[in-house]
Structures are given as structure tokens and as C-alpha cells.
Design goal:
homodimer, about 375 residues, alpha/beta, 2 domains, two-stranded antiparallel ribbon, about 45% helix
Chain lengths: ~375, ~375
């Protein structure tokens, strides 16, 4: 078992990483304040892991008063599901000294975390992430939210968990496509922040894809360390935390342009990173060889290296969230080298267009449709 | 114009108090961050004051992109109304650099403040309170919330405004009953924290009831100073802030027991304070003469000195929010003297019963019904 600490002063918390972590009652015990506990999970994860988590909580002395199950998938990050979570918490009389345990992937973490942020003006929550994406990314940093018809994560809060229990053993049951989507964020941490992690991935990718416990523990730990450093320096995302968005500006456009749900978030980020690297090369900041290393690693991980066939104007619109978008108004996270992301808002529209063209399937013309 | 500062470090903010304050564009100017502005108000207040507020915002250089109006009264603090506010903010493309101006009483402040707390994970809001209750109490301290069928203020956040513009001129249009309900909270500040304010009220109550601008400014300023000190010492209500709940434990039971909406919050607090003073006398902590001074002042303000006719067991249930309540489990804010509130959780059920009996209308027996 390894532990990474996220240093946030009074809101500092540990991330415990290892196979079998979710059964280890000492990891829960110190976070119980005597109040009642609610487990929030989904209908796919709960049947596999919830009994073990509840048993460990019980051994730790917790009174698990309720279990609220939401549907699987992004649709659960809704206003209606959130209301159902509150109904469950109130019916179980969870008090201000209560605890919400979020058991599942990023959706459950975002939803349950936001519920904890505003239930009775804020109660504790503890994350037990069960996807690689959640273990390496969404469970670190305290971002919680639900979606709105007009946009993802529109309603939310910054609310840090009291602890994260990242059991890499749970990744054994993760669908292959979701494992690869999680690897996209690990690749992102490497290329944005840590050249050594990139080299490690280049030589250990097969072990990771084979779900070797040690390899999984390594990337979860290193990703959490990297993200924890950035978050500690910039909790509310006013500065350096934006670097974690490498691949995400293009990625969000890909997700939205393809229709939410068609691409997994990690898949969109993968192709988005390839675009951002192309842009970095065109802006004269990155060697073409380094962009090629990114593309090759993404490809080896079985992730897409091309965005969907949309006109570049549509990409810009989606990136700016605005019909009147111009490339110049958008901030891009680009690379000055491997592991050296920076934020730029003075890039040429010409370069952005070329990067999109280089890393997306060719849009059909009106004539060919 | 006077200004009280709420000292909360990075979240410190000014409360500007005076007649005509809402027209003073300099009070808004320094809080504009360049983004779009939304005014949230209700259907009663907006027709009277919204044009003036929007004009002042315009003179300050703000781009008021939308005005969201909610229904008047406590029913607006609902999940459904909150969703409507988000729809309005998103339709008007209010961004992270945007500002919500809450124009109205406590309901509008609580609702719009909570919307600001979670919209895009938190944007700025500025309060323009138009009731005495909101000016002396709810606009100080950053508590925001909406109600749930199972309880008031169940979903909320601590979110400090960037500024409060308390125009006592707006109190000219306040219904008499609401003015008196606001005075209840001023009386509370005096008896809980400041003997001098009590003496001042005893000699100036008629001027206050006649809505004399100077008298109103005095009680708003002094109340804000007192509350600001307590909040600065204890933003998240873990300790001394609980003293501001003098009269509120009984008061909440009165509000709920009478059926929400039958009593105004301030009216319930008034009778609740009389009960809490009776309890203080019975617990041997307060002179009977001091309790009598409270009762007399409440009466002179035209506020109720008796709770509704409920059995004492029902009061206990409502106070504890629990069917299995015992008096011993409830924490009471009681008085050791005028201006000297303390928190106690070791009081005798016998004394609580006697205090309820002394300060509530007699419940009907089964036979007499």
C-alpha cells in the first residue's frame, strides 16, 4: 500500500493506493466522525464491490445507514439524480457529522462529491474510485459537478474528499475500452508534466494493458503525485492547474461534436492531445519527433489519434462554447517539450486550423454528402 | 453612508449602509470583473427597485445581461426555482467572471447566493437586501440555501458576497409586519451580544417603528457589526456563531409546528427568545427582571410573546428534528445576562417543559377538542 498526500492545508487528504485497499478498515476508521454513513454507487459497480466496502466500513465502526444507487453512465450526473441522492440522504437522516462514501467511477465521484458539498451546507465524503480514469484523475482535486442541458459540469463546487481509497484490484473488472480511456489521462500527465513518466509508459505499456497490479499502482501513484502538486499550488484553477487541461480544449470539442456518449472522455482527450501537439509543432514550439512520440503512444494504447470529421469552424465554435468564436480568443495548453506544457492565448488561427486538419478525419463536403 | 467590514481574509467584504445606497454606482464599480451581470429578484421587489439598481449598475459600467424573477415568499427557495435560475444564467451566458446581484429579502438572497455558490463551481454575488431582516441578519455571514420537503435550508453552501448594499430607504415600502419581524432579529443581537443595543432599543423603539432613517441605519449598522464579529471568528459555525441562534431553537419549532408560512421567521424567533429567556431563568442563570425586559420589548415591537398551542413533547420533537427526541440531547442558547448568551447542552428537561408552558398558548386537551 502506498499513500500520496494532497497538501491543501486544512483540507489536506491522503490517497491510499494498492490492491485490496478497499477492504482495509483502517483507511476508513480515522475519517469517521461518529455520524451516519451513506454509500453512493451505481447499478453496475455496487453488485461487485459494495458488500466489501460496507463490510470494511462496519469493521471500522461505521453505521452505514443507506445505500443510494444511481444509473450507470454520464446521464446520472443530472439535476434529477442529484435530487434523488438528497432524498436518500434525508430519508436516512444523515447529519452534518455524516459521511458520504462514493463508490464508482468519475460520474459517481462527481455526483456524490457535489451532493456532499451542498448537503446541509457541506458534509464529508470519501472516494473509492473503481475506474482507472477516476483513480488517476477525477478523484484528485476536489472538482465536483452535475451537467446541465446547456453544458457539462455547469453546476458544481470545489469540495475535497477526506480521503481516497484507490484499489487497483477493482480495475480487473473494468471494460477494456474504459481501461484505455484511463490510460489517456496517464499519457496526459506524462506529456504535460513529466518526461520520465512518458519514458516509463513507452517501455511498460503492455504490462499496463495486461492490468499488471504493480504497473497499475505505479501509474496511479505517479499521476496522483503530479496532479496533487498542481492542485496544491492552485486549488481553484486560476493558474497552473489549467495545464492539466492538455488535450482537453480540443477533447471537449470532440466529445460535444461527436455527440455526448459516442466517445469516452479519455478517447476524446487522446485525439485532443494529438491535435494540441500538432498545434505546438506548427507554432514552432515542439519538435515534430516529440509530437510523433505522443501519437505513437496513443496508438499503441489503442486510443484514437484523429478527431471526428467536422469542419474546423465547428471545432472552434465548440471549443469557445460560442457561435462567434475566433481562434484567437481561445486559450490553448501546448507543449514546449515533453513534460513541459504551457498556456498560450496568442496562437494563430492558421496554425489551429492546420492542427485540426492534420488530426481529424476529413469532413465530407456538401457535394459528397 | 457608513461601511461595516466583514473580516474574512481573502473573502472579506464591505456592507454599505445608508438611504439611497442602491443608486450609488461606486458601490458596484469595484466589484465588476468584466463579465456579464444577472439580477435575481422577485415579482414584488423588482417592479419597485430593479430599474434603479440596473441603472446604477449601468453607470458603473456593468453589462446587465438578464434579470431572473422568482415568486415572492419562502416557496421560491425550492429546487425547481433554483433550476429556473440556472436556466436563466446559462441562457444569458453568464460566465465565470460574471456577477449575480441579489435584489430582495432573505429568500432572494439565500436562493441567488446559493445559485452563485455552485454556478460553474462558484461565481461572485452582490447582495442588495430590501427587508430589515435581510439587512440586519441574512445578508451577513454567507449562509445560502434552498429548502427540501424534509426541512428548511437542507441544501446550501457557505458563500460570501463580494459586497452588501443595504439601502435603508427601501424599508419605506416594507409591510409593517415584516418590519417588526426584522426588529426581532435586532432584539436578538442585543440580548445575545450587546446590552447597550438593548438599552438603545428600549429608548428608540418608536422611532424605529416610525421608520426613521437614522434609527434604521443605527440598528442595521450595529447588527452588522455584531454579526460580522461573530462570523469572522467562526465562519463555518463550529463554535461562537451558534450564539446567533438565540431564540432560534424554539423559533424553528414554532415555525414548523404552526405550519411554514403561518408565522414569519422573525415572529417565531421573537416568541422563541421569550421561551429561551424563561429557560435561562429556570436554569438559574438569568434574573427574572432581565427576562421581563426582553418580553416587554418584544411586546412593544408588536411581536408575539407566546408560541402556538402545542404539547411540549411536540416542541421537543420539532426542535430535535427527531421523533425520539429527549430534551437532554438538544443544545440551547441561553442567557447569563443581557448581552451574554452561551451555549448549553446539559439543561434539565423539567426546566425546558416549564419554559415552553410559560411562553406558549395552552394546548387543547383531547377532551376539549
Amino acid at each position: 500500500m502506498e499513500t500520496v498526500r494532497v497538501e491543501l492545508g486544512r483540507r489536506a487528504y491522503p490517497i491510499h493506493i494498492g490492491a485490496g485497499a478497499l477492504d482495509a478498515e483502517p483507511l476508513y476508521r480515522s475519517h469517521l466522525r461518529g455520524g451516519r454513513v451513506a454509500v453512493v454507487s451505481n447499478t453496475v459497480v455496487a453488485p461487485i464491490y459494495s458488500a466489501r466496502v460496507k463490510a470494511a466500513l462496519g469493521r471500522a465502526g461505521a453505521q452505514v445507514a443507506t445505500e443510494v444507487l444511481v444509473e450507470d453512465g454520464e446521464s446520472a450526473k443530472s439535476w434529477a439524480t442529484l435530487e434523488r441522492v438528497f432524498d436518500g440522504l434525508l430519508a436516512a437522516r444523515i447529519g452534518r457529522d455524516g459521511l458520504i462514501v462514493a463508490l464508482g467511477g468519475g460520474v459517481v465521484g462527481d455526483l456524490a462529491g457535489f451532493a456532499a458539498a451542498v448537503y446541509q451546507r457541506g458534509i464529508d465524503f470519501l472516494q473509492v474510485p473503481t475506474t482507472l480514469l477516476a483513480q488517476v484523475d477525477s478523484s484528485v482535486g476536489g472538482k465536483t459537478a452535475v451537467n446541465h442541458a446547456r453544458g457539462k459540469n455547469m453546476i458544481g463546487a470545489f469540495h475535497q474528499p477526506v480521503a481516497v481509497v484507490a484499489d487497483v484490484g477493482t480495475l480487473a473488472t473494468l471494460p477494456d475500452r474504459e481501461l484505455r480511456a484511463g490510460i489517456a489521462e496517464v499519457i496526459k500527465h506524462g506529456f504535460a508534466l513529466d518526461a520520465e513518466l512518458v519514458s516509463w509508459l513507452e517501455s511498460h505499456l503492455e504490462r499496463l494493458l495486461a492490468r499488471d497490479t504493480e504497473a497499475l499502482s505505479h501509474v496511479v501513484r505517479r499521476s496522483c503525485e503530479l496532479k496533487a502538486q498542481v492542485v496544491a499550488a492552485d486549488e481553484r484553477e486560476s493558474g497552473p492547474r489549467a495545464l492539466l487541461n492538455f488535450g482537453h480544449t480540443f477533447g471537449h470539442a470532440i466529445e460535444a461534436g461527436a455527440g455526448y456518449g459516442a466517445w469516452l472522455h479519455g478517447e476524446a482527450v487522446a485525439a485532443g492531445m494529438v491535435m494540441a501537439a500538432e498545434l505546438s509543432v506548427r507554432a514552432g514550439m515542439l519538435a515534430a519527433d516529440d509530437a510523433a512520440r505522443l501519437k505513437r503512444l496513443v496508438q499503441r494504447a489503442g486510443l484514437p489519434v484523429q478527431g471526428p470529421p467536422l469542419a474546423w469552424e465547428r471545432y472552434l465554435e465548440l471549443m469557445a462554447g460560442d457561435k462567434k468564436a475566433s481562434a484567437g480568443r481561445i486559450r490553448y495548453v501546448v507543449l514546449q517539450g515533453i513534460g513541459q506544457a504551457i498556456l498560450r492565448h496568442d496562437l494563430e488561427e492558421r496554425d489551429v486550423r492546420a492542427a485540426i486538419a492534420a488530426a481529424s478525419a476529413k469532413p465530407q463536403t456538401a457535394a459528397s454528402r
